Amino acid sequence: MGTRRRRHQHHGRWVVPAVAPAAAAFTAAGLLLVVVAFHCFLSPPLGGGGGGGGGHRVVRRPNPPFLLNKPSELRRNVVGTVDFAVPSGGSKLGEELWASKLASNFFGCSNATKAFADAKAVTEPNRYLMIATSGGLNQQRTGIIDAVVAARILNATLVIPNLDQKSFWKDASDFADIFDVESFISSLSNDVKIIRQVPDRNGKTPYPYKMRIPRKCTAKCYENRVLPALLKKHVVQLTKFDYRVSNRLETNLQKLRCRVNYHALQFTDPILKMGEMLVQRMRAKSGRFIALHLRFEPDMLAFSGCYFGGGEIERRELGAIRKRWKTLHASNPDRERRHGKCPLTPEEVGLMLRALGFGKDVHIYVASGEVYGGEETLAPLKALFPNFHSKETLASKEELAPFLSFSSRMAALDYIVCDKSDVFVTNNNGNMARMLAGRRRYFGHKRTIRPNAKKLYSLFLNRTSMSWETFSSKVQTLQKGFMGEPNEIKPGRGEFHEHPMDCICAKTKGRSGHSKPRPSNRIGEAMEKRANDGEFDWRDLDYGENTPLGRDSSNETDSDMHELEDMKSVWASYREHR
Fold this sequence. Notes:
This protein has 578 residues and is of the alpha/beta class. It has 23 helices and 16 strands.
């Protein structure tokens, strides 16, 4: 494959052992010939131009960026100069790199307290709550979890949620195709009454009253907005149900979230069996492995508004995709990257992992859709970690055939492998990353690494000016607090599905207690308000949607709003006579 002329000197450091003067001269001359021959072999023909993108790496670069020189790799940057030698071996940290020493001191605890009444005692007749979820698999998962909580707040019977079949992925799967319905209903029987469909009235299926509620709606919000409609209409469907329940609720409702997420919501047997088979095949190749949620698909990159060094071609291609979201803010790539809101490139992820101490021989499972730039973009990561796997390389087309046409089922397979991995690395703060991070904390604080993108940005920008040892040391320093250690996040901070602190307990002598004090309601409310008033953040959204999910629009007409006012009058009367 053709390459381009680069007029830059190499700065690699070569170590020559001490020899006699004559021998030294002979050795030096021979070494010079080798270097010149090697340089000529690598140099492209004359006449090539320089790539676009300034000092950043061009995504669609045709030539591999690595020179191999065992036991180290001499890494070249975008202009062809040698940056530093990347050692092939791993860190001296050993087991501490793969697992936290403190993990065994904590455990998941989501049982209800005695104050949490049984569903049979609190569920009111003629109150049926229906939910229409939104987005991809993991965004819909959050909707399902919160639907159970909403039904409990309203003392209503929950109807099995409807999954989103109209988003970007056009997945026709329904709830029963992905999740075990019987397990879902039976596991939560003491918490919320759940049925498959609304019972007929006079031989006809009741048509639900549809409404949309604001994001992060509190328990009081549900009582004021949804309960009046339930009292009058009896069957209510909440549409576009994603992140429509407050991040901070009282402890028993938070524990209910955990019971739904970590115990009741199980994948179907075909998905579980296929997922376990992929895990077993990874284990057969290596005793332990890293799972990397790469999240470097074209749609994701376009949605982020970030720039990855691909010049005008990248700007044009990703810009065209970004137009699908009509109301997204104008992108400011430099600001997004400075604020740590851009995913790392595959190359940057690989360098981060090697700098942390993971050796070249480590096996990596990559959970990803179509990577922007294809194999050319993945080449640097594969050079750093040659033992590179995915569900497509581990299983045959025949084995994957039942799942291939359904994006949510394919995502479920990645979810299982990532969950079972020894180390999970997430290259974003999206829905799958949050859900898995919380799950791994709940089930023993398994090592979960999230790049400190805001701090790493400047380090990657200046990496050519330092040795590998310096670079590695800086990465390890910057990643403290981003390695999935217990109590990494301050009490009261963080999104609950990622940091389920109300469901994490610390082991103590003779008894178990919470791993941290729970913030008072006043503090929680203040932090909730600050979160709601914060700057719009694309990471809170799901890029499969055609419009931003942060807009609290409603599909209600003016007449519906008048009717809602009547419902509130009914609710006021109801409260007076309770």
